[in-house]
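User: I'm curious whether this sequence folds into something compact or stays loose and floppy. Could you predict its structure so I can see for myself?
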Amino acid sequence: MKISQFPVRKLTRAGILTSALMLSQANALAEQVTLDDAVQLTLNRHPSLLKFRPLTRALEGDRQQALLSPAYTVGANLENVMGTSSTSGVQAAEATISLSSVYELGGKKSARTKVVDARVALLDSEQYSMSLSLLGGLTQQYIRVLAQQERLQIAERSVSLAEDALTVITNRIKSGATNDAELFRAKSALNQAKLELATAKVNKEIALQSLTLFWQGNYEDITLTGSLNSPAKNYSYETLFNQFLSSSNADLLIKSLDLKDAEIQLAKSDNTADLSWSVGVRRNQGAQDTSLVFGASIPLFAEKRNSGAVKSAIASKEAELLERDTKYLDVKAILFKATKSINFSSQAALHLEKEVMPDLKRALELTKEGYQKGIYTYQEWFASRDALLQSQRSLINYREATLLNEALIEQWTGQSLKSFTFNLQD
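Assistant: Here's the prediction. I'll summarize afterward.
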């Protein structure tokens, strides 16, 4: 498997969210950036993905090293020189020139290569899983921006209603139909609404900047359009967990175990000792004779001496198995919570929209008319207005929660996502 030929993975983005959010496009002041554009910009620019380029090159170097056979060594040896009596000078010198190396036994080269291949496969899965995680975070932040935009609209509506109330009360004071206390309450309500509007603007800017940071952009360059409207959902936790088991996130856990298996085989390959050999030519100056020399050696008790390394590798895999089981438990908790939250929040949003808000809108109309006629007090009118605004805020919260949990589910299961292609190779 050549690292430089990593397969281009097909990434997917939330198809459910595409229709649910009804995203038309992002209208930029200087440029137009759609959600698909944001995805591609994030994949191309986010540092957590860019790091896979040098990591890929590092594995290429590791594989190159793993394929190497033991090096040849050239040696020279000179004996019986500069001695006394018969060995004085170089008269009785013995010179040996040799070539030596190690013959690997036990399939060590194959085991090393398989470890690198397993690391390649693991890195590929990590890259894909990291990409899905980033896309999930990007989609969730996109949803948060849309929610903040709708909260900003609620805040603007609250200011408009407070200004309308102040106008009505001012006219009633002029006609002598009410007292100054209601005027001050109305002014206070208007100032409070303006403060909430300023807060909403700041929160929107923060959310928008958090979104553009995914591709190292600037929030001042874009404006998003969209809606949080989505149909009621009813997901099955068991189905979603089964989808996770066949997803790239589960594949990442499997690749981690494959790497541990390869490391165990590499450790076991050292149970067979390597054979060291040498061959050379020896020159006996005293006897004026030249001869060939051969040598070979092999360590004893290699398997016994290597038992600790094998034991360590096996224990490491056992720990990885437990880590996988722990991750399964974590994902079960995440998917169960997300499923229950979606099923509740989508139904709650529908109930608010169909059952609660129509009555509150009608109650606001009646209390406003009644106040102008002197039937209801300002407090009753204000309470009706506040209840409607609060229900609209709750509707945004429920819809946001529904879509955020959908993005979380799709991040872990990799299902119901729109395909696009990317390649992080140089």
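Summary: Residues 161 and 176 are 22 Å apart (CA to CA). Strands lie at 10-14, 26-28, 73-79, 94-103, 222-224, 275-284, 289-297, 417-421.
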